[in-house]
Amino acid sequence: MADFFFIFFFAAIFCALLSPFQAWTQPYDSSVSTRLVLETSGLIKRYIMNARKDKWNSVHELPRDPCDEYGQCGPYGICRVDKPIRCECFKGFAPKSQKDWDHQDWSDGCNRITPLNCNNGDGFLEFRRVKYPDMLKYWLNLSMGLGECRDQCLRNWNCTAYANPVITYGGSDASTNLKEKEKKGTAKLILISIAAGALVSGFINGAILLMTRRKRRAAKKNDGNDLELPIFKLATILAATNNFAKENVIGKGGFGPVYKGNLSASEEVAVKRLSRSSSQGIEELKNEVFLIAKLQHRNLVRLLGCCIEGEERILIYEYLQNKSLDYFIFDENQRMLLSWPKRFDIIMGIARGLMYLHHDSRLKIIHRDLKTSNILLDANLNPKIADFGLARAFGEDQSIARTKRVVGTYGYMAPEYAIDGKFSVKSDVFSLGVVLLEIVSGKKNRGFNNHDNCHTLLGHAWLLWKEDKFLELMDESLNETFVESELKRCVQVGLLCVQKFAEDRPVVSSVLFMLGTDGAVLPEPKEPAFFYERSLNPITSVSSPSMKSDNNTMTITDLEAR
Q: Where does the signal peptide begin and end (predicted)?
């Protein structure tokens, strides 16, 4: 009854989610807070707040164990909750694909090691505490003993199993005991799966398997044919990266590791390999290929080709010697290499690249994950926007879209996207504003800590702007190279881009105009998103610098961070 109530309770409040993944509830006892979390794996967890320890305690979850998931180990597989390796095969069976099992993909199940031979002493194995399969038909014989039942099942090759079950109300949780219990005068309830049931279920499973295989073959056949770019052989990639040697790893993201490769003595490439444990998958890879293959701009990274062979999914890009922007601006030593003129050029280059995506390309592209680590720098420190795995193409007249799967990086996401899943060109502009303020200040928005009355870099910049102290936001390494009018415009435009409401933010074409026009009259920015002031006693702040006060009125939970 408790489980039933929990499921019903969850269904009743699911429509009131505050985010795509979390629901808050208020029980009859107003002193107790409880919440339900639907994880991306499908697991439902219920938490109750422990007020004394100020932490959430997990008190209930469904399903209770992995073996409650249907078909966890595939045909002829056994799911075990008491062992580290969840699935194993029945005796006399072996994994259908050992490679898949090595990667903990058990869905294809097991095959017989030797063919079944009912005339050569083959028999049945006994299993206890198992759930009945979904049988469409069965034989029920109240007068037959368990031994007779076994003999008849042996004579019928299509007989899957036999049992002397104790059936409880509902039947699904009945325990099966295959040991014969003869009691005179007691009717025996004998359940035998018959040929009809086995054949029907076999036909259904066979049809599903056939359709799945056809889809896989069709997908593999088309993987490399519709991409409109060169296809590299896996052998070529292995040779270029020295068999994906660890010393050739130059980066890692949500997609997987990135390797430096040499196709020839004069041609270096960046090889992006999809990892099995990646938070992204084949759909994101295809999305990136189909989008970026159609895009050509000096401020976008250039895709040279791909490799889709066997289980490998690989993208090949131009190699950019100077890594990503975050490597420079957040490092005490490397930031010295970026003077103000160079930083201003980088800002303008990023804006031009985004302008192309939003307005000038054949497709209207929303990047959705613009951040400093996705801005790569070439030999001359020219910026190139990279990583289009999460990008989305808009229709010609489309201005906004909504998703239930919020993906991206906390600190760069616009509030309407992080909370409601709404994204548009204005959500990209918000990310651009964060990047712009990070370039000016040399500080990260995420994890920003300053002993004043704000929580984020955006709030810090806003307070300095209101007090006409915008120069204090500037990276100290720029003291001898900055141009005050340009720096002021950058701070002001950055704050305009990160305003709370999307309609208050400029489009990227206006951003370019404001940045590039000296003397232009710019609108006054409003309060930025994610801005919360704190009332701290100055003495307390000085004496306890490690203490943090958090008055956030919003909670973002279970975002897919990258």
A: 1-23
